[in-house]
Design a protein that fits this description.
Elements lengths: L1 E8 L3 H10 L3 E2 L4 E3 L11 E8 L2 E8 L7 H7 L2 E9 L2 H10 L3 E8 L7 E7 L3 E7 L7
Parallel strand pairs: 1-5, 6-9
Antiparallel strand pairs: 1-6, 2-4, 3-4, 4-5, 7-8, 8-9
The protein binds nickel (II) ion (NI).
Length: 142
Amino acid sequence: MKIDHIGYLCKNIQNSLEEFQNLGYQKQSEIYQDTLPLEDGQSRNVFICFLEKDGYRIELVTPINKDSVVYDTLKKRGEGPYHICYQVKNLEAELEQMIEQGYFVIQEPNKAIAFQNSRVAFLFKMGVGIIELVERGFDYVI
Ligand code: NI
C-alpha cells in the first residue's frame, strides 16, 4: 500500500498552516470543513488542509468542536502526527484482510470531502496505532 499522507493534529489550523509554510511546506488545498454526517449519524467535525514538502504530504487536522472525532485524541496526545494514510484500490477487500490481521475498525468506510468524496476508513492495532485507508482509482497521482 502506497502512503497517501501523514495526518497531523493541531489546535488551530490557520496558525499551524502558517508555521508549516514558514518551514517550507507548500499549501496543497483549501481548508476543508468536514461536517457531513457519517453512516452512524456522527460527523467528523474537522478542519483539514493538505501541505507538501520534499514529496511528503501532510494533512493538518483540527477539531471544530468538542463533538469532533479527534477532540479527545488532541487533548490526550497534544499536537503532532497521529495517523498514516495508505492508498488502496478496493477498500472492502483491504479492510477484510486487515481485520484478519487483527486490526479493529474505528471508523467505517465513509465519503470524505477532503478527498473529493473518495471513501476512507480508520483502523487501529496495538503496535501500530491509528491508520487510515483511502480508496483511490488506478490513475490517481498525488
Ligand atoms: Ni488522514
